[in-house]
Amino acid sequence: MEPNQEEFFERVVQVNRVSKKTKGGNKRSLSVLVVVGDKKGHVGVGLGKASEVQSAVRKATSYAKKHMIEVPLNGRTIPHQVLVKSGAAKVLLKPAPVGTGVIAGGAVRVVVVAAGIHDIVSKTLGTKNQASNVYATLEALGRLKKV
Fold first, then answer.
1. Which residues touch 134 (CB under 8 Å, ≥6 apart)?
2. Is 60 exposed, middle or buried (0-12, 13-18, 19+ CB in 10 A)?
3. What is the mean pLDDT of the chain?
4. Which residues of 7-44 are buried (b: 16+ CB within 10 A; e: fewer)?
5. How far is residue 128's CA from residue 125's CA, in Å, rounded to a whole number?
6. In this structure, are residues 47 and 32 in contact, taking their beta carbons and an 8 Å threshold?
7. Which domains does the chain have, with CATH numbers?
8. Is the torsion defined by CA of 64, 66, 72, 75 positive or negative?
9. What are the record keywords, sorted (predicted)?
10. pLDDT per residue over 72-100, tens digit each?
């Protein structure tokens, strides 16, 4: 593990039980979606799969830390509005004045808080699938341009 591990904000977004048919019967495992961020403009998402929750979380966290993106911030908010469609998920992110807070639904809220954004308004459209919304939010943050 990394020595500065305590600096990262980690949140498990989704835990799925998945099974595979084999000759010997069903092979069950767990799929875990984790969001990791330093609350200073860096955020990553990882998907880990293992037979135990802790192993899956460890794998997902490791992947998320390796594949972090940098989010351009304009003070406590984002520089401009962005609308992204990723699969069935559509996510709209809008900058907000100081003091507004994070107005976002579950999956989007976790990614935005991990990135260190304090004032934002968002809307998820299209699907309620948390994993799809997390990936769409990450793509939206990646498309932001520094103003």
1. 13, 33, 35, 45, 107, 108, 110, 111
2. buried
3. 93
4. ebebebbeeeeeeeeeeeeeeeebbbbbbbbbeebbbb
5. 8
6. yes
7. 5-69 (3.30.160.20), 71-142 (3.30.230.10)
8. positive
9. Ribonucleoprotein, Ribosomal protein, RNA-binding, rRNA-binding
10. 999 999 999 999 999 999 999 999 999 99
